[in-house]
Design a protein that fits this description.
The complex is a heterodimer.
Chain A (H helix, E strand, L loop, with lengths): L2 H5 L4 E8 L2 H11 L3 H4 L1 H5 L10 H21 L9 E2 L4 E7 L8 E13 L6 E11 L5 E12 L2
Antiparallel strand pairs in A: 1-4, 2-6, 3-6, 4-5, 5-6
Chain B lengths: L15 E8 L2 H11 L6 H5 L8 H18 L11 E7 L8 E13 L6 E11 L5 E12 L8
Antiparallel strand pairs in B: 1-3, 2-5, 3-4, 4-5
Organism (chain B): Chelativorans petroleitrophicus
Protein name (chain B): MaoC family dehydratase
Pfam families (chain B): FAS1_DH_region
């Protein structure tokens, strides 16, 4: 497997699907984002969102969960040439958009499209992988997108 | 609507808010990981410290912890109507067990929405630091706030 085949540049990969229950939305919100529209159905109905919806940070963290799963699976399948690519901690992201609320009961499909792999001048041997992250609800509406950046060491 | 709530009118450009101190425990990190990185580490990861897949959780965890601090500093006693996103996020240093996070929020700019005169968009810059004064993360983040006195001619 070449590095290009491993990274599948320009190809959109489905990472997984997740149904957000009211219970887990409230549990996350109670801990990290206790705004009324993430915690309480009645308050949410009266808010701009019109119904209980997940914290944007929860939908992002869930994207990460399925992304890590997918990367680990691909690393299992790595058969060279060269040693298995290494991933460093992500350095950030751009243009994160919470486009639509993720409502309780919504099943969200998470995808990733690797866009480019550029040398990092300050870190010989490492390159910066830029990826487009997206998430869609059952109606096919895009609910989340951002462009993430993660350093990768590969031969 | 109570008069104490922070509304669009009070979020003037240049205004700075302090984020409350938050201690990050090993239990807290384990709880976040169990939800969002539940798979055991790849066998090679522990053998190769450079392979920091698990560190991916650190940035998003920092984001979630920051959100709690933002809620306490501003949002919970405000007319906040949610956020459309984050224009730019930089994760400069990992969050580790034993860290104490703090930081500040600055209002960069604001405007009343033409399409919804009762609602304004406030652009914040958030900076989160650890106990050594290192910046852990910084981001620019627009948030919608209701106006205290909506104007039809705005």
């Amino acid at each position: 497997m070449s590095l290009d085949a491993f990274l599948k540049l320009s190809e959109t990969v489905t990472l997984g699907r997740h149904t957000f229950t009211a219970e887990e939305i409230k549990r996350f919100a109670a801990k990290y984002d206790p705004q009324p529209f993430h915690l309480d159905e009645e308050a949410a109905r009266q808010s701009i969102f019109g119904g209980l919806c997940a914290s944007g940070w929860q939908s992002c963290a869930m994207w990460m969960r399925y992304n890590l799963q997918s990367i680990r699976q691909s690393l299992e399948d790595w058969d060279g040439p060269g040693s298995r690519p290494e991933f460093g901690p992500p350095t950030g992201f751009s243009n994160l958009k919470w486009l639509k609320p993720v409502y309780a009961g919504d099943t969200i499909t998470f995808t990733r499209t690797n866009l480019s792999l550029e040398p990092i001048a300050s870190r010989p041997g490492w390159r910066l992988l830029s990826s487009k992250a997206e998430a869609f609800n059952d109606k096919g509406e895009r609910v989340l997108e951002f462009e993430g950046r993660v350093p990768v060491k590969a031969e | 609507m109570t008069a104490r709530k922070l509304a669009f009118e009070e979020l003037q450009e240049g205004r700075v808010f302090h984020l409350p101190e938050t201690r990050v425990t090993a239990e807290e990190i384990a709880a976040f990981s169990s939800q969002f990185d539940p798979e055991p580490s790849h066998p090679d990861e522990e053998a190769e410290p450079g392979n920091a897949l698990s560190a991916a959780g650190s940035g998003w965890h920092a984001g979630a912890l920051f959100m709690r601090m933002f809620c306490e500093a501003i949002l919970l006693d405000s007319t906040s109507q949610g956020s459309p996103g984050i224009t730019e996020m930089r994760w400069n240093a990992p969050v580790r067990a034993g860290d104490t996070l703090s930081g500040h929020i600055t209002v960069l700019s604001r405007r009343i929405l033409k399409s919804r005169p009762g609602l304004g968009l406030v652009i914040f810059r958030h900076v989160v630091k650890n106990q050594r004064g290192e910046t852990v993360m910084e981001c620019d983040n627009p948030v919608f706030f209701g106006l205290r006195h909506p104007r039809d001619d705005a």
